[in-house]
Amino acid sequence: MSYISHTKNQEQEMLKAIGLKSKEELFKDIKPELRAKSFNLPEGLSEFEVLTHVNNLAAKNQAQLVNFIGAGFYDHFIPAAVDALASRPEFYTAYTPYQPECSQGWLQAIYEYQTVICQVTDMEAANASMYDGGTALFEATMMALRVTGRNKIIMDSGINMIYRTMMYTYTSNLNIEFIETEVVHGQSNRDEIFKYLDDKTAAVIVQNPNFFGAVDDYSDIVEKAHSLGVLAIMSVYPVSLGMLKTPGEMGADIVTGEGQSLGIPLSFGGPYLGFLATSKKLVRKMPGRIVGATTDKDAKRGFVLTLQAREQHIRREKATSNICSNESLCALRALIYLCLLGKKGLVDLAKLNYDKAEYAKSLLDKIIGVEVKRSSPTFNEFTVCLPKNADEVVNSMYKKGFACGVPLGRFYKDMDNYLLISITEKRTKADIENLAKALEEVLCS
Amino acid sequence: MQLIFEKSIPERCGVKLPKSDIPAAKSLSAKYLRKVSASLPEVSELDAVRHFTNLSKMNFSIDTNFYPLGSCTMKYNPKFTEKAAATDSFIGLHPLWPQLLKDDYLAQGALEVLYETEKQLCEITGMNAFTMQPLAGAHGELTGAMLMAAYHKAKGDRRKYIIIPDSSHGTNPASAALAGYEVIVIPTDSNGYMNLEEFKKHLNKDVAGVMLTCPNTLGLFNPHIKEISDAAHKVGALMYYDGANLNAIMGKCRPADVGFDIVHLNLHKTFATPHGGGGPGAGPVGVMDDLVEFLPISVVAKDKQGKFYLNYNKPKSIGYIAPFYGNFGVILKTYVYILALGKEGLVAASEAAVLAANYIRVSLKDDYNLPYDKICMHECVFSASKQKEKNGIMALDIAKYLIDSGIHPPTIYFPLIVKEAMMIEPTESESKETLDSFIELMKSIAKLAIDNPQELKDAPKKMPVKRLNETKAARELNLRWQ
C-alpha cells in the first residue's frame, strides 16, 4: 500500500514531459557511490494486518489496573465531543496557519485558546503552545534571562523532578547558575529562597501544587522577588485552578504548565501540551507562536500570526526560541475541553477532585502504620508514609489490580517508604474504598 | 464568525460531571483559594460542537485541498494510522506504567512499538541508534546540537561554531544557538549548492559540526555531499542531517552512507502523521556508534528473554529531553505507516514525489523564473521575479489568488536566497489530474499578471476574510478576548 494514484500510463506521460525515460534518471545526482547500502525493510502489510498487529501489541500492556498514578500527568475524564471535534480532518490535516485567509478556523481557535489559558491562570497573554510542561518551563526560564539580563536562577525542589532534570539538560551548554532550594515538610523553604534572592537573580521558579501535591500561596515569595527585580515563574496544574489561588493573583510574571489534564489522553507520555502565559509588559519577549486579532480591508475582524519577528524563520540564530512545530491540536483539545466545562464546570471538577482526595486521605489514615502527610494542604494528590518499602507495596498492590501510587524512593533519598497517590474524578467511592481495603490487607500480611 | 465567548450564556454547561459519591470535604483556608472563577465560556455541547465544526470549515487541509506547501511534505495521512493510535490500551496508558514495578514492565506493547520504530528508522537512515524523545523537528535539531557538544566535550574539545548554509531552515541556526554555538553561514553557489570553497575556508578545528538539509531547501541533492562530509570529518567536525526533506530519497540514499553522524527525522512530514494545524510532530534523532552513549535517557532495550525494558544507566547521556519517551501517539502512527508501506511502498513514495515535483518544474518553467533549472528532488523553487518586475505582481499576490481557487499556496519567500520564492512540494499523494489543474491555474495566473494584475492584487475575495492588516496586529496587540 503506498497511497499513490499515478497509473503506469500517467507515469510515462509525466516522464515524457520531463524528457526522461525512467524514474531512475530522476535520481542521477545520487551517484552510485552515494546510493543506499541497504534498505532491508519487510514487505508492506494490508491495513487489516497492521491493525490486528496493533491490537495484539496493545493487549500486552497491563492497562486494566485501577489507576492512582499522577505525578504531573493525570487520568481525567475526556468528554466524547473533544475527540469528535479534534478528529475533524479540517483541523488535524492542516498545517501551521501561515496563510491567514484560508486558516481562519485555526487562527480563531488559537486566539480562543490563548484567551482560556489567560482566564484559567489569571494572566494577560498566552502563546499558541509549547511541546510540554517541561519545555515550557525551560522556555520561561530563558525568557526571564532575556528580560532581566541576569543569569542566576533559583529553583524550588518541589518542582516536578522530571522538569528539573530537563532544565539541567537543556541549560548544560549555557552559562546559567542554578540554585535548587529544599522542600521542608512538603513546602518551599522561604528562609532559603530569601537568602539566595538578590539583584543578580533572574527568576525564582516554584510549582503549585508541588510535586508532593502540596498547595501553597507564593505571594510572599513573589513580593520579595519583585523588590529585587527578579521575575517569578510558576508551573501550575490547570485543573487545580478551578479552586486554587491563581498565579495571577499571586503576582507571577510567567506561568507555565502541562496541559495534558485538559482533555488530552495520557497516551504513554505524549503528545502533550505546554502552556505559557505572561503579562502584557513581557509579551514581546515571549517565545513561540502568537495569534492576534486584526481587521481585513473591509474592517472585518480576522486573525493572524503576529510578532513573527521574534521567531526563528525570521530572526534565525537571534530568535527568542527555536520552536517551529508546536502542539496546536492538543491546544485545540484543551480549548474544547474548557469550553465544555465552562465557568462552573471547572469549579465543580476541581471540587470533585479535592473532595475525593480528602475522602481517600481519611480512609488511608485509618490504616494502622500508614501516615498521610498533612503538614501542607493538598489538592488531588498527596503523600503517604508506609510502614514498609513502597516499592514492595506497589508490587503487592499490582497483584491485587491497583496501580496504587508512585514510590518516591526512586526520586528522593530517605523516601523509600513514601508513596505519591493521585485521585481524579474518575475514581469512584468504591475504587477508593477498595484501594484502602487492599492496602490494609497488603500491610497486614 | 463570533467568538465562543460571545456565544456564552450564564449557567450553561456542555458536560455532565460524575455525581459526587463522597462527602464534601472541609474547604481549604481562604488564602489558598481563587477569589473569582475563571470566566470561561458557558455553552451547551451543541453550541460547542457547532462552533468548532464551523471553525474547522474555515481551514484548508489535506483532506479538503491540494496543499503543495514546500518543505512541509503535506502528503495524505491515511485514516488507519489514526485508528491505530486511538487503541484504548495505548491511548489511556500512563507514562509511568513501565516504571512502577522494579522487576517487570507493565507496558510491553508500548515499549515494543518504540523499540521496533527505532529499528525501522535505523534501517531507513543507516544510523546505529535513535532516540525517539524529541517532540518536533526543531526539538530534534536542538537534541542533535547538544549531542555534538557532549561528544566534543568528552574529548576535552570545546568547539565554538556550527556551519550552516544560507539556504537552511531558520530552526537550524536557532537550535545551534540554543545549544551554545555560534553560527557560520555559508553562501549558496550558482548551482544551488553550498559554496564548497567558502565552506572549506571556514572549516577548522573550532567547528563542532555542519548542519545540512539534503536535498536542500532548493530541492537539490548535492552531488558533492561525500566530499563535504570527508572534509568535515578530517577536522573532527560532525555532520548533522536535517531530515525535513527525507521524503525525496527513501531507499535511494541513506544519510549514514554518505557520512552523516547525526540525523533528525520529521515523522509528521516523511511518515504521514498529520500536522495538526502546526503540531504535534515528532523529531527522533539517530546517531552513529560514536555518539550512542550520549543519547537522552531513557533508552528502550530488549533482554535475553525478549522482554523490553527502559535503560536509565547511561552515565554519559545528555539527560532528559522530553518528560518520557517522546510523542508516543505520533510515533505509533509512523510505525504502522512504515509497516503498511513496507520497503517497496517507501521507495515508490519517494519516486512519485520526485516525479511530481519535476513534472511541475518543467510544466511551469516557461511561465515563471526557475533560478536553478535542473532536475530537482521532491520540491522545486520558482520565483515570481519576472511578474514582479514587469507587472508588479509578487509571490504574495499569486498565493492569495491560489487561495481563492481552492489551492493552498506554496511556501513563499523561502528559501531566503531566492527573491519572490515560491517553493512547491506536491508530494506523492496527488494525482496527475490534480497536478495538471494546478499547472493550468498557475499558467492562467501568469497570464492574468499581464492582462489584469489588479485581479491578483484584490485576491482573495471568496474567503471568510480579505487580506488582513498584519502591521495593525503587531502594533495594536490584541491577543485575547476581553
Q: Summarize this, please?
A:
With 445 residues, chain A is α/β, with parallel strands linked by helices. Helix content of chain A is 38%, strand content 15%. Chain A folds into 2 domains: 107 residues, Aspartate Aminotransferase, domain 1 (Alpha-Beta Complex), CATH 3.90.1150.10; 258 residues, Aspartate Aminotransferase, domain 2 (3-Layer(aba) Sandwich), CATH 3.40.640.10.
Task: Compile the SSE list and pairings.
The complex is a heterodimer of chains A (445) and B (482).
Chain A: H1 8-18, H2 47-59, E1 66-67, H3 80-86, H4 89-92, H5 104-121, E2 125-126, H6 133-148, E3 152-156, H7 161-170, E4 177-181, E5 183-184, E6 187-188, H8 190-196, E7 201-208, H9 219-227, E8 231-236, H10 247-250, E9 254-258, E10 274-278, E11 291-295, E12 301-305, H11 312-315, H12 328-365, E13 371-372, E14 381-385, H13 390-399, E15 402-403, E16 406-407, E17 418-422, H14 429-444
Parallel strand pairs in A: 1-15, 3-4, 3-7, 7-8, 8-9
Antiparallel strand pairs in A: 2-10, 5-6, 9-10, 11-12, 13-14, 14-17, 16-17
Chain B: H1 45-56, H2 79-85, H3 88-91, H4 108-125, E1 129-131, H5 137-154, E2 161-165, H6 171-178, E3 182-186, H7 196-202, E4 207-213, H8 225-234, E5 238-243, E6 262-265, H9 267-270, E7 285-287, E8 299-302, E9 308-311, H10 328-364, E10 380-383, H11 385-391, H12 395-404, E11 411-412, E12 421-424, H13 432-451, H14 453-457, H15 470-475
Parallel strand pairs in B: 2-3, 2-4, 4-5, 5-6
Antiparallel strand pairs in B: 1-7, 6-7, 8-9, 10-12, 11-12
Helix pairs in contact in B: 2-10, 4-10, 5-6, 10-13
CATH superfamily of the largest domain in chain B: Type I PLP-dependent aspartate aminotransferase-like (Major domain)
Please write the string of helix (H) and strand (E) elements of chain B: HHHHEHEHEHEHEEHEEEHEHHEEHHH
Helix content of chain A: 25-40%
**Largest sheet composition of chain A:** 7 strands, mixed
CATH architecture of the largest domain in chain A: 3-Layer(aba) Sandwich
